[in-house]
């Protein structure tokens, strides 16, 4: 699927200030970015650069202190807790560094969990097939390797056919080989389903598989780079 | 380490407080009930001491005052008080039914034995104005005040007595009309009158008919009684007795000993339960800290230091529980004692703190907590630090009952999460269910007594006694008088009885009792055994005694006992025990009426009669009875039942209410802890679901589902435990003189179930609030 010029996310001068005891921490200082439908974006930055904060705000887990964020035509800035829940429910798939699978559910059941709340879910077996774990659907998380668990987490995230897939350091806890497999799975989803995908990483090497790379530094956009040619995940080395 | 302790407490203060609350409840209930009983006991002792309650008593027909000197010479006797005591009928205008009173002579001496505590007015002046003091409860029920007057039939003449004071005496804490079983303050009271005027009215100048004796320290009561009996027998002495057989004292002592047992047993069970829960909950708390313990060990802390850290924590919680338990317990005991004292009518309260019980309660709590802590810490310390820091071994979800039975298949993924977690955390689930089950059990235990009391009231007043009115006669009446009674207005059935004060003896065991002579098969006044079967009294059958009487005398069916007739000069008889039956009332003895007549060497002479009366004509009946000089007293059964309910509700409802409140608190504490632990253990899963877009309500289902399953499982577990605890309490209440049936109505079980569900819901609301404030992102960013 190709990238269209429709904005999925539009962030304008987004600021986020956390109050940590007596100190104000400025996690984001006026960030403006756009993300397009079908696009694969990597948000690159060192620890503390504000990339997770940005992803959380885009994903409806947090709200900005100032600035404007919209998903398509919907403002996320003034949304309350319930609006954000509905937003996540309908549009967002999350993948985290530590998988966060439900230990007491099998791979398939973990995926089926989202099928329960989605309007037009992907059949769980289909979602697992897309991440190459169809044959392990009856395994519990504890019976799967880290990479496999992360792929189940991806299958679960896409199980509801989200409009956006947001991944926070999805390979952070994995070795290179496994990390590549996970990235392949993410890339395939982006390709085949056309899901707008944003991956956060501190690992610059990963940036090459994206359409666009947004670099954050100290809470500000330092650089936006368009990859003229996207690398395959298996070509990545780090 | 102290910084860690503070940090831990900051983090866990809610749970810590809830745990302390559990133990605090147990301690305070224990301290409260035992302190009130101690206060009550001391207040009674003080009352007896301050107003010089006599130690040996006897009644006789008439003896010259000189006899008192003879008795004063008996070794062991400190002081003798001679009195004139007479029961007389009263004429109270606003009462349809007759009332009577006991006139007791008083001397003008300073600090007399059996002194009167004056509540209002003054002491009577010894002149011809017939001034009297009236007992408080009687005065209250008639709104008598000093200045009012009272008309009585004294020595065959109507006399007007002038009330100058309202008072009370240790001799009449309980005022019970002779032949009656219960207090009826409206129909019977005590009136104290100067000795000289009573002597004049009853022709008793220089004579007396009642004795009270104060003993020297270490005097032998039995020996004094034996000697006094010998001296008074020629003057119609009915046999001296000590306080144990003094009507008022025995009642008070019985009541207090029952209350004491109840005040000990139930709170002791509460305490044990709360200590056990403290143990469970604290153990789980330490188990949650495995990772922290491992980290500390990795830093090089010695196991002993880590152990000490948790011991300090547990001791701090025990300390909080102690402060809470002692303060609340003591404060409540003041309130409770003052309520009881109102009921028992002691003039002053001597507040006590049951320090031994208080210390024991803390000891129990601390030991339970330490045992749990040691076990949990040992487990945590045994792990190698590296091992402990790794996540717990993955659970094996295959082969679970929920899987094998296919239960999982029909559940939603969320439902599966709930059942699988419950099943894999079997130990934790079991302990949670058990903990909440105990709360259910405690609720049953705290409220079943009402069922027992209701049962006993129904048993006594509905099933056993079917008469409407009981008449007692001044002197015994012949058979023809019963014929008259049958013609009284509204009377449809008459059943006469004979009662005689006797002493039953078997070797050294004796018991004074009003021996009831009844028809072979009583129809109105029935005696029922514990299976609700009528007991019959065959002619020449011998004595029928209650189980407790048999135990007191150490006899069984077929044995013979001595029967000493107390109110006349007669030889004693040996009578066989024909039947022993189990019942729920005072130790009692019955005989066929004709056999009792034979024993007394008389024809048909009746002490009174039970009447069945048309309820519409009761007033006519009373109007008529009032004109009958032969009638000494009337007991209206419905009034008696109402009065009994009143008495019982004021004395035992306090304890029941307190028990119910405390069991509710315990239930709340357990469930709250359960909920918090589940929340802590599941926070990650719950946050994951929220991030995935599950709504708050949907996520709550995971938590509340688990709580609900535990709650629902705890009910069938707790109810049988509650039955068991109540059974144990019943056994403990099985005293020398009384036995209680174990009656638990369905309503009590339902009540326990409803309270536990309500408590669970209340906790759920709180947990929901905590769940809503869960920081989703922070939870997920932590490695498992």
TrEMBL record, chain A:
Against InterPro entries, the record matches this protein to: AAA+_ATPase, ABC_transporter-like_ATP-bd, ABC_transporter-like_CS, MacB-like_ATP-bd, P-loop_NTPase
Which terms are listed as keywords in the entry?
A: ATP-binding, Hydrolase, Nucleotide-binding, Transport
Q: Which GO terms describe its cellular component?
A: membrane protein complex
GO terms assigned for molecular function: ATP binding; ATP hydrolysis activity; transmembrane transporter activity
A Pfam short name: ABC_tran
Residue intervals of the ABC transporter domain: 9-236
EC nos? 3.6.3.-
- Superkingdom assignment: Bacteria
Q: Which family does it belong to?
A: Belongs to the ABC transporter superfamily. Macrolide exporter (TC 3.A.1.122) family.
* PANTHER family, per the entry: ABC TRANSPORTER ATP-BINDING PROTEIN MG467-RELATED (PTHR42798:SF2), LIPOPROTEIN-RELEASING SYSTEM ATP-BINDING PROTEIN LOLD (PTHR42798)
The name this protein goes by in its record: Macrolide export ATP-binding/permease protein MacB
Tell me the organism's taxonomic lineage: Bacteria, Pseudomonadati, Planctomycetota, Planctomycetia, Pirellulales
From TrEMBL, chain B:
Segments traversing the membrane:
12-32, 262-282, 314-337, 357-377, 427-449, 657-680, 701-728, 748-767
**Boundaries of every MacB-like periplasmic core domain copy:** 28-230
GO cellular component assignments: plasma membrane protein complex
> Which GO biological process annotations does it have?
lipoprotein localization to outer membrane
In terms of InterPro entries, this protein maps to: ABC3_permease_C, Lipoprotein-release_system, MacB_PCD
Topological type in the membrane: Multi-pass membrane protein
Q: Indicate the principal place this protein occupies in or around the cell.
A: membrane
The subcellular location is: Cell membrane
Keyword Transmembrane among record annotations: yes
Keyword annotations of the record: Cell membrane, Membrane, Transmembrane, Transmembrane helix
The ABC3 transporter permease C-terminal domain covers 266-385, 660-772
Hey, which family's this protein in?
A: Belongs to the ABC-4 integral membrane protein family. LolC/E subfamily.
Q: What is this protein called?
A: FtsX-like permease family protein
Protein source organism: Stieleria bergensis
């Amino acid at each position: 699927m190709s990238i269209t010029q429709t904005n999925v996310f539009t962030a304008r001068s987004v600021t986020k200030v956390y109050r940590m005891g007596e100190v104000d921490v400025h996690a984001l200082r006026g960030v403006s970015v756009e993300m397009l439908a079908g696009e694969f974006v990597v948000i690159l930055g060192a620890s503390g650069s504000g990339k997770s904060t940005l992803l959380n705000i885009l994903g409806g887990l947090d709200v900005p202190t100032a600035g404007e964020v919209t998903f398509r035509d919907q403002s996320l800035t003034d949304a309350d807790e319930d609006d954000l829940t509905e937003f996540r429910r309908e549009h967002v798939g999350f993948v985290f560094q530590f998988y966060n699978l439900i230990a007491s559910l099998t791979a398939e059941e973990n995926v089926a969990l989202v099928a329960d709340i989605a309007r037009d879910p992907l059949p769980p077996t289909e979602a697992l097939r897309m991440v190459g774990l169809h044959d392990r659907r009856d395994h519990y998380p504890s019976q799967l390797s880290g990479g496999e668990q992360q792929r189940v987490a991806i299958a679960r995230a896409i199980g509801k056919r989200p409009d956006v897939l947001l991944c926070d350091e999805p390979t952070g806890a994995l070795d290179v080989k496994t990390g590549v497999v996970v990235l392949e799975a993410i890339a395939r989803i982006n390709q085949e389903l056309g899901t707008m995908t944003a991956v956060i990483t501190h690992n610059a090497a990963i940036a090459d598989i994206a359409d666009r790379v947004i670099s954050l530094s100290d809470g500000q956009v330092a650089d936006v780079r368009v990859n003229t040619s996207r690398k395959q995940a298996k070509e990545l080395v780090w | 380490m102290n910084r860690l302790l503070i940090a831990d407490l900051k983090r866990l203060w809610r749970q810590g407080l809830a745990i302390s609350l559990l133990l605090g409840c147990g301690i305070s209930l224990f301290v409260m009930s035992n302190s009130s009983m101690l206060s009550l006991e001391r207040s009674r002792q003080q009352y007896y001491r301050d107003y010089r309650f006599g130690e040996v008593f006897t009644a006789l027909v008439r003896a010259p005052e000189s006899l008192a000197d003879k008795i004063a010479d008996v070794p062991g006797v400190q002081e003798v008080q001679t009195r004139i005591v007479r029961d007389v009928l009263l004429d109270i205008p606003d009462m349809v039914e007759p009332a009577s009173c006991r006139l007791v002579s008083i001397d003008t001496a300073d600090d007399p034995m059996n002194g009167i505590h004056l509540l209002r007015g003054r002491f009577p002046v010894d002149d011809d104005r017939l001034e009297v003091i009236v007992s408080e409860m009687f005065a209250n029920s008639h709104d008598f005040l000093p200045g009012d007057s009272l008309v009585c039939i004294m020595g065959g003449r109507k006399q007007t007595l002038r009330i100058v004071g309202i008072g009370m005496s240790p001799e009449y804490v309980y005022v019970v009309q002779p032949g009656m079983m219960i207090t009826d303050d409206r129909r019977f009271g005590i009136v104290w009158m100067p000795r000289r005027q009573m002597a004049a009215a009853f022709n008793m100048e220089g004579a007396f008919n009642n004795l009270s004796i104060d003993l020297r320290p270490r005097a032998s009561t039995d020996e004094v009684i034996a000697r006094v009996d010998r001296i008074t027998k020629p003057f119609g002495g009915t046999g001296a007795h000590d306080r144990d057989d003094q009507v008022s004292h025995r009642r008070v002592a019985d009541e207090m000993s029952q209350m004491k047992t109840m005040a000990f047993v139930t709170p002791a069970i509460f305490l044990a339960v709360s200590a056990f829960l403290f143990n469970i909950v604290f153990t789980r708390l330490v188990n949650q800290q495995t990772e922290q313990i491992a980290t500390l060990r990795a830093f090089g802390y010695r196991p002993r230091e880590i152990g000490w850290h948790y011991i300090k924590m547990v001791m701090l919680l025990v300390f909080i529980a102690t402060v809470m338990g002692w303060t609340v317990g003591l404060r409540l005991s003041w309130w409770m004692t003052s309520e009881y004292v109102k009921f028992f009518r002691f003039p002053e309260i001597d507040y006590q703190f049951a320090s031994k019980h208080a210390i024991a309660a803390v000891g129990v709590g601390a030991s339970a907590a330490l045992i749990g802590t040691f076990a949990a810490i040992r487990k945590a310390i045994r792990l190698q630090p590296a091992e402990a820091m790794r996540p717990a071994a993955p659970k094996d979800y295959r082969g679970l009952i929920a899987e094998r039975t296919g239960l999982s298949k029909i559940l939603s993924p969320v439902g599966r999460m709930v059942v699988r977690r419950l099943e894999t955390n079997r130990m934790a689930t079991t302990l949670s269910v058990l903990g909440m089950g105990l709360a259910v059990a405690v609720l049953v235990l705290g409220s079943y007594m009402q069922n027992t009391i209701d049962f006993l009231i129904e048993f006594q007043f509905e099933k056993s006694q079917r008469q409407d009115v009981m008449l007692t006669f001044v002197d015994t009446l012949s058979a023809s008088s019963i014929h008259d009674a049958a013609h009284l207005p509204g009377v449809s059935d008459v059943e006469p009885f004979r009662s005689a004060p006797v002493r039953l003896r078997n070797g050294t065991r004796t018991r004074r009792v009003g021996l009831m002579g009844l028809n072979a098969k009583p129809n109105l006044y029935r005696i029922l055994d514990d299976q609700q079967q009528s007991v019959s009294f065959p002619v020449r059958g011998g004595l029928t005694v209650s189980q407790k009487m048999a135990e007191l005398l150490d006899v069984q069916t077929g044995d013979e006992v001595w029967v000493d007739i107390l109110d006349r000069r007669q030889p004693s008889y040996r009578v066989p025990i024909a039947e022993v039956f189990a019942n729920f009332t005072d130790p009692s003895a019955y005989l066929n009426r004709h056999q009792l007549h034979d024993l007394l060497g008389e024809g048909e002479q009746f002490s009174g009669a039970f009447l069945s009366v048309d309820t519409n004509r009761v007033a006519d009946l009373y109007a008529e009875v009032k004109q009958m000089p032969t009638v000494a007293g009337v007991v209206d059964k419905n009034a008696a039942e109402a009065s009994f309910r009143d008495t019982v509700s004021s004395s035992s409802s306090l304890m029941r209410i307190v028990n119910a409140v405390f069991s509710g608190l315990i239930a709340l504490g357990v469930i709250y802890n359960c909920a918090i632990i589940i929340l802590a253990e599941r926070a990650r899963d719950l946050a994951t679901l929220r991030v995935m877009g599950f709504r708050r309500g949907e996520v709550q289902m995971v938590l509340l589902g688990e709580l609900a399953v535990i709650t629902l499982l705890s009910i069938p577990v707790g109810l049988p435990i509650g039955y068991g605890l109540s059974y144990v309490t019943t056994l403990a209440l099985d005293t020398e003189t009384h036995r209680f049936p174990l009656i638990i109505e369905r309503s009590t079980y339902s009540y326990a179930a409803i309270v536990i569900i309500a408590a669970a819901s209340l906790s759920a609301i709180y947990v929901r609030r905590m769940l809503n404030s869960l920081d989703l992102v922070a939870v997920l960013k932590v490695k498992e």
